[in-house]
Design brief:
Strand 9 (about 190-195), helix 7 and strand 10 (about 215) form a beta-alpha-beta unit. Helix 5 packs across helix 6 and helix 8 packs parallel to helix 9 (about 245-250). This protein has about 350 residues and is an alpha/beta fold. It is built from twelve helices and 15 strands. It has two domains: about 1-150 and about 290-340, Alpha-Beta Complex (Quinone Oxidoreductase, Chain A, domain 1), CATH 3.90.180.10; about 165-285, Rossmann fold. The longest helix is centred in the middle third of the chain and has 15 residues, at about 145-160. Helix content is about 30%, strand content about 25%. The strands form three sheets. Strands 3, 4, 5, 6, 7, 14 and 15 form a seven-stranded mixed sheet that branches. The chain starts with a strand and ends with a strand. Its EC number is 1.1.1.1. It comes from Nonomuraea dietziae. Pfam families: ADH_N, ADH_zinc_N.
Amino acid sequence: MRAVTFDLFGGELDLRELPDPTPASHGVVIRVAATGLCRSDWHGWQGHDPDIKVLPHVPGHELAGVVAAVGADVRGWREGDRVTVPFICACGACAACAAGEQQVCERQTQPGFTHWGSFADYVAIDHADVNLITVPEDMEFSTAAGLGCRFATAFRAVAHVGEARPGEWVAVHGCGGVGLSAIMIATAAGARVVAVDVSTDALHLAERAGATHFVNASSGDAADQVRELTRGGAHVSIDALGSPQTAAASIESLRRRGRHVQVGLLPGGHTPLPMGRVIAHELRLLGSHGMAAHAYAPMMELIRAGTLHPDQLVTRTIGLADAGKALASIGSVPGVTMIVP
């Protein structure tokens, strides 16, 4: 198979021929029809993720495609099925999985991190009966591929963890793929959304996604501007980018007893946070890490009903040969980039 590969962290991203994967007894191999370009892949390439232990490595963790091979112990899937997966693939047997919290599985695997990922013609997925999700015939693979990380992650962060309610103010810091998804989902939930970014182009996309108020973080203190726009601060604030600056700004954007949700991955090292404000205003600091396969149904129904439009967030489609260059320059093109092998 063809796959985008790196031999050194931060090194060249080459398209080369590699052996096709084979399924574990409990797994499947998926022929990749579309895979998303995500900042998490950039973090992995840079060496920020401890799960990448062996090089060479193939990145990519948002995917949709067709089942090409099935392990002997898989019961619910067969060759030819149209599927997608959450980027956190659960074991189905640990205490977290037994509690229905597969997104924090104790023995989770993640394509593109714990093993070779989806910037390739084929990708192997373990524990298929726990992790695969049917892609409806009327849904494009490029739409389904964007669900596994950024859209499903944003859905759970906004609806389940942040618990955004109609009429509340939601501030979204970082209007990349996760941030734009969060804006669309919060808007559909009836919230009033403030989009925060340093890019005018990204803020234009945020308006298309449903944001009604905008803060250009390069023009002054972002948290001050959010508090002024919302007359006291957001009820929910989401760091969808992941940096010490955006995490602190998200917390400082909140009104008293507000809820901060950290979604964007933070690079290694210390992340100083305004804990005095957290204590004085009784703020809640929450982490959100993907969404389990069994929880996809309500989100999929909203997409099929036309309430949510993840396809509108895709601004560029490229081939596998261009994926390495696109990963190296991630953030230079607003919106979601989709790779179609």
